[in-house]
Automatic annotation (TrEMBL):
This is 2-oxoglutarate synthase subunit KorA. It catalyses: 2 oxidized [2Fe-2S]-[ferredoxin] + 2-oxoglutarate + CoA = succinyl-CoA + 2 reduced [2Fe-2S]-[ferredoxin] + CO2 + H(+); a 2-oxocarboxylate + 2 oxidized [2Fe-2S]-[ferredoxin] + CoA = an acyl-CoA + 2 reduced [2Fe-2S]-[ferredoxin] + CO2 + H(+). Residues 484-578 form the Pyruvate:ferredoxin oxidoreductase core domain. Residues 212-454 form the Pyruvate flavodoxin/ferredoxin oxidoreductase pyrimidine binding domain. GO terms for biological process: response to oxidative stress. Transmembrane segments: none annotated. GO terms for molecular function: 2-oxobutyrate synthase activity; 2-oxoglutarate synthase activity; pyruvate synthase activity. It comes from the Archaea. The lineage of its organism: Archaea, Methanobacteriati, Methanobacteriota, Stenosarchaea group, Methanomicrobia. The keyword Magnesium does not apply. Residues 14-178 form the Pyruvate/ketoisovalerate oxidoreductase catalytic domain. InterPro entries: 2-oxoacid/accept_OxRdtase_asu (IPR022367), PFOR_II (IPR033412), Pyruvate:ferred/Flavod_OxRd (IPR050722), Pyrv/ketoisovalerate_OxRed_cat (IPR019752), Pyrv_Fd/Flavodoxin_OxRdtase_N (IPR002880), Pyrv_flavodox_OxRed_cen (IPR002869), THDP-binding (IPR029061), Transketo_C/PFOR_II (IPR009014). Its EC number is 1.2.7.11, 1.2.7.3. Keywords: Oxidoreductase, Pyruvate.
Length: 589
């Protein structure tokens, strides 16, 4: 019997409450002290199509989804046909007893739990749409989990809809629970038990980005909805009054970035968010922020391209785009969080960099990180110290005898010039998209151009000295192994499945090091070159077709990696896929 280790999946048509039911299951497990990780899949349709959500549960911290499903809740027969190949031996299917399942359609080692959803719904007098909760309750009974916890989570999720809705959803879940207990033996192989260690949050990367932005003092957010960045807009709008934030749902992405630039110009911490197609529209504004030296944070949440691509799926195909977007040379700091915690803390670091270095900053995410939930400990809101950068002293400005415009773009050794904001006495300057002199006046003078380009470029040199270098780690965040068989290099959400794969590889006697690139620009060239030079074998793992990170490593260090482990079908890596690929490299080269 397997205790506190299973993968649960629910599937059905859009509109059947797939996501809501999955979240209740995730939250219920987390509230019982267990660790959870969930991943949702849905087509880019306004209505219809097959939706599913998978929840992995264990009593240790987990970092990604895995192959193999132990419980499948099928709200329609299509779900069984689509996912039967994922079921492990001894797995169970909870399904509507009105659906006919032929023995040839499933493995002999799969256990069937037919439930008369419609009859139960009629008997207890609730809405037909609540069959999802009947199925939820049935799965809770099957794994012998505490129904009281589930009831509390249902109450919390539906409290805004009133007592009647809470009661109906609870009764639906309890009816499914009771049906399993009364009609089937208690001999299902997989069970969950409370651990007595509740208190973790269940968040997405987008949730964490928003929390980080709010903690950093963001007071303006503008965006046009675009999957998978849309939920940032929803989250920020919901917190608008509580945290005194101005949130604008703009008519397009051009307006979004221009509004954010305007807010940043006035001294407000501002952010915008989009995906690749929306960022295409933002690129002219992105360059404008670079020329004006205005701080603004841009969340670029990747999805597969080109063009509309796969709107609701995941990929890491925009790394080079983020590094080179907009014309000309200007500072382009790019930060790449790899998990929920880093999404929270690095967003705050992005705001600090934007203001201190007076430049636009990109936080690069993807659908896998943006929308999947993971249980995590509470964040430390004081871990990142807020740095508002260099502002001119109002008293010094007022006492100044200088009657000319303020030298907003003054040549400095580190490239950072003092700022003023509108309303500061004697702080007037010209803010132009053209090249300009120290006061902002448009200039095409050769010496001015050279000095101003060099001034802006010096910011990146200064920033590079300030940033923490990537750390080489072994499995489960232990110290790196000096005699590791292979070193994996990656950036972003591949971190989770890599960490899980490292555990599998260690069990096979394969020693692995992992180097995570968090700052894509400025790139840690010396550290990466050092690691490549000392490693026995190297592999880059990334969710794109061409191996963009490997190309960047080659450009910045002059060194090749031994293997590019790539996936570009719109789905994130499974740890098993990385395990197989890395084992092959170590074994056969």
């Amino acid at each position: 019997m397997a205790i506190n280790r299973l993968t649960w999946k629910i599937g059905g048509k859009a509109g059947e409450g797939i996501m809501a039911t999955g979240m209740i299951f995730s939250q219920s497990c987390s509230r019982g002290g267990l660790h959870v990780y969930d991943i949702s899949e849905y087509p880019s349709l306004i209505k219809g199509g097959h939706n599913n959500l998978q929840v992995r549960v264990e009593d240790r911290e987990i970092f990604s989804q895995v192959k193999g499903v132990n419980i499948l809740i099928a709200l329609n027969k299509e779900t069984i046909l689509l996912h039967k190949g994922e079921l492990v031996n001894g797995a169970g299917i909870i399904y509507d007893s009105s659906e006919v399942i032929e023995p040839k359609e499933i493995n002999d080692n799969i256990r069937l739990y037919p439930i008369p959803f419609n009859n139960i719904i009629k008997e207890i007098g609730v809405q037909g749409i609540m069959k999802n909760n009947v199925a939820l309750g049935a799965s809770i009974a099957l794994i012998d989990y505490d129904f009281g916890i589930v009831g509390e989570v249902i109450k919390d999720n539906f409290k805004r809809k009133g007592d009647k809705i809470i009661d109906e959803n609870t009764r639906a879940a309890k009816a499914g629970y009771d049906y399993i207990k009364n009609n089937f033996k208690n001999d299902f192989e997989y069970k969950l038990e409370k651990t007595g260690k509740p208190g973790r949050m269940v968040l997405t990367g987008n949730d964490a980005i928003c929390m980080g932005a709010i903690n950093a003092g963001c007071k303006f957010y503008a965006a046009y909805p675009m999957t998978p960045a849309s939920s940032i807009l929803h989250f920020m709008a919901a917190q608008e009054r509580r945290f005194n934030i101005v949130v604008k749902h703009t008519e397009d992405e051009i307006s979004a970035i221009n509004m954010a630039i305007g807010a940043g110009f006035t001294g407000v911490r501002a952010m915008t968010g989009t995906s690749g197609g929306g960022f295409c529209l933002m690129t002219e504004g992105y360059g404008l922020a670079g020329m004006l030296e205005v701080p603004v944070v841009i969340i670029l949440s990747m999805r597969p391209g080109p063009s509309t691509g796969l709107p609701t799926w995941s990929e890491q195909g925009d790394l080079k785009f983020a590094l080179n977007a907009s014309q000309g040379d200007f500072p382009r700091p790019v930060l790449v969080p790899g998990d929920i915690e880093e999404s929270f803390y690095l967003t705050q670091v992005a705001f600090n960099i934007a203001e201190k270095y007076q430049t636009p900053v990109i936080v690069l995410s993807d659908k896998n990180l943006a929308e999947n939930h993971k249980s995590t400990d509470k964040f430390d809101p004081k871990k990142v110290t807020i740095d508002r950068g260099s502002y001119a002293d109002p008293a010094d400005l007022a006492a100044s005898l200088d009657t000319t415009f303020f030298k907003r773009y003054k040549y400095t050794e580190n490239g950072i010039s003092p700022r003023t904001i509108p309303g500061m006495k004697k702080g007037i300057y010209t803010a132009s998209s053209d090249e300009h002199d120290e006061e902002g006046s448009i200039s095409e003078d050769i010496d001015v151009r050279i000095k101003m380009m060099q001034k802006r470029a010096r910011k990146m040199d200064t920033l590079a000295k300030e940033l923490k270098q990537p750390e080489l780690v072994g499995s489960q965040d232990t110290d790196a192994n000096a005699d590791a068989d292979i070193t994996i290099i990656a950036a972003g959400s591949t971190k989770g499945p890599i960490k899980e794969a490292m555990i599998l590889l260690e069990k096979e006697g394969i020693k692995v090091n992992f180097l995570q690139i968090v700052y894509l620009n400025p790139f840690p060239s010396e550290k990466v070159a050092e690691v490549l030079g000392s490693a026995k074998k190297t592999a880059v793992v990334e969710n794109n077709f061409s191996g963009q990170l490997a190309d960047i490593i080659k450009e910045k260090t002059g060194k090749d990696v031994d293997k590019r482990v790539l996936k570009y079908d719109g789905r994130p890596f499974y740890p098993e896929e990385i395990f197989t690929a890395i084992k092959e490299v170590v074994t056969h080269g």
